[in-house]
From TrEMBL:
Protein name: Branched-chain amino acid transport system II carrier protein
Record-stated family: Belongs to the branched chain amino acid transporter family.
NCBIfam families membership: livcs
Coiled coil: none
Source species: Propionibacterium ruminifibrarum
Bilayer topology: Multi-pass membrane protein
Listed GO CC annotations: plasma membrane
Keywords linked to the UniProt accession: Amino-acid transport, Cell membrane, Membrane, Transmembrane, Transmembrane helix, Transport
A Pfam family it matches: Branch_AA_trans
Length: 459
């Protein structure tokens, strides 16, 4: 007889896992900056931040679950070449070439280095390599069995992380009064847009396009086979993760609003100062534990997702070897320093993010009548990609296209692509409807959607 399962428990555990995968070091640092910088405009800033930092990633998880595919399957709806190149670049950027090495370095700077300083130990050249090696081994152990990732993270690491964050926030909110500070810069002149941009810079939509597949695999490993129930379960798990993210962001933002003095743009310094002021030496330890857990769960999810994708793309090299290779690459990049990597990869993210959001939006529309859209995908991604390229070039110092577009007074490098892309998507939908595609799905697209949704089977 098969063992009895608890569907509600599995969905809850998967939601907790998803929260932990999203909640990395960047997500920990951004909200206190909002609280320390927004002043009386904090509610408006938070509304914008939650829209792009929580609602959009939630929509991405839902889009992936309704499509039954990961970023690879969705990208193939634009075309075969795009469907091969886009996922590869996304997985590399949020995996071994940028996001994971950054997580390793950030966890060292915010946690290990602080603990060494508190213990009176001067961090030498040995400290970062030792930290990276230990961190890499722990990540490897967590990610080695993707089918058990939900249990390992959702049952144990996420509750521990939530308890530590709650203790830190509650103690600070109780012991420290709100600091009187006036909003400055964009927080004063355009608070909602500033919040939108800050949530946009978390880059969680790119991560969600990958984590959506992790969620589907986690549910599959628990015996979820019915398509409708799987979509429902994935949506509920995403809602649990989004609710937790929203609550934690709110607590951290209120924490930032209670820390006076110092640099309001230094989220790590704000958190470290608040913890030390409220809890003394114990606060520094709690803060370090929060950082390590947040970074560890994120790196395990990202490396597991990369290895699953790579094992499918190059099946002769299995999942385990891909995972070990990715971990080794992350170790060396973290020790070589991320300054150059950030300068190279940040423009790539400015190019990818508009395209990823556009794919998600069209996929949600396409869920109404699967397989009926073609021009909407192509027109939308072409516009988003072109304008994303303008932003990327501006980040590289090639500002002429951006300056030219700025003359319209409708352009900025972060969100200027949104309205033109929306127009192109709507135009594409109209073309698909008037061309008869709404009632006659393209057989080529139906064939493309038979590609395995897993991008690497759970092991």
């Amino acid at each position: 007889m098969p063992a009895q399962t608890n569907p509600t428990g599995h969905v809850t555990t998967t939601g907790l896992m998803l929260f932990a995968l999203f909640f990395g070091a960047g997500n920990l640092i951004f909200p206190p900056v909002l609280g320390a910088s927004a002043g009386a405009h904090l509610p408006v800033v938070l509304a914008g931040f939650l829209l792009t930092g929580v609602i959009l990633p939630l929509a991405t998880i839902v889009a992936v679950s309704t499509s039954g595919e990961g970023i690879s399957g969705i990208a193939h709806r634009v075309g075969p070449r795009f469907g091969t190149l886009m996922p590869l670049v996304v997985y590399l950027v949020i995996g071994p070439l940028y996001a994971v090495p950054r997580v390793v370095t950030v966890s060292y700077e915010l946690a290990t280095r602080s603990l060494l300083a508190q213990a009176g130990v001067e961090p030498g050249r040995w400290a970062l390599p030792v930290h990276a090696a230990v961190f890499g081994c722990l990540t490897l152990l967590l990610a080695l069995k993707p089918s058990r990732l939900a249990d390992r993270i959702g049952h144990w690491l996420t509750p521990t992380l939530l308890i530590l964050v709650a203790v830190l926030c509650v103690v600070v909110l109780v012991r420290l009064p709100a600091a009187e500070q006036e909003p400055a810069g964009g927080y004063a002149t355009s608070p909602f847009r500033t919040g939108l941009v800050q949530g946009y810079l978390t880059m969680d939509v790119l991560a969600a396009s990958v984590f959506g597949l992790v969620v589907l695999n986690a549910l599959d490993s628990q015996g979820a086979t019915d398509r409708r129930r799987t979509v429902s379960a994935a949506s509920v798990a995403a809602a649990i993760a989004a609710a937790l993210l929203g609550l934690v962001y709110l607590g951290l933002a209120m924490l930032g609003a209670r820390v006076g003095g110092g640099d309001p743009s230094d989220g790590a310094g704000l958190l470290r100062g608040a913890a030390a002021h409220s809890l003394g030496g114990a606060g520094v330890v709690i803060f370090a534990a929060v950082v390590i857990l947040a970074c560890l769960t994120t790196s395990a999810g990202l490396l597991s997702a990369w290895s699953s994708y790579a094992a499918t793309a190059w099946p002769r090299v299995g999942f385990g070897r891909q995972l070990v290779a990715g971990t080794v690459v992350c170790f060396f990049l973290a020790n070589l320093g991320l300054g150059m990597i950030v300068r190279i990869v940040f423009p790539i993210t400015l190019l990818l993010y508009p395209v990823a959001i556009t794919l998600v939006a069209v996929t949600l529309v396409d869920a109404v009548a699967p397989g009926h859209l073609r021009a909407a995908y192509r027109w939308g991604t072409a516009c988003a990609g072109l304008l994303g390229l303008v932003s990327a070039l501006s980040a590289l110092g090639v500002t002429a296209p951006s300056v030219l577009l700025a003359r319209t007074r409708l352009w900025n490098d972060e969100t200027g692509w949104t309205f033109p892309t929306l127009v192109c998507v709507v135009t594409g939908v109209v073309i698909d409807i008037t061309g008869g595609r709404w009632s006659s799905p393209d057989p080529g697209l139906r064939h493309a959607r038979t590609v395995s949704r897993r991008g690497g089977a759970s092991r």
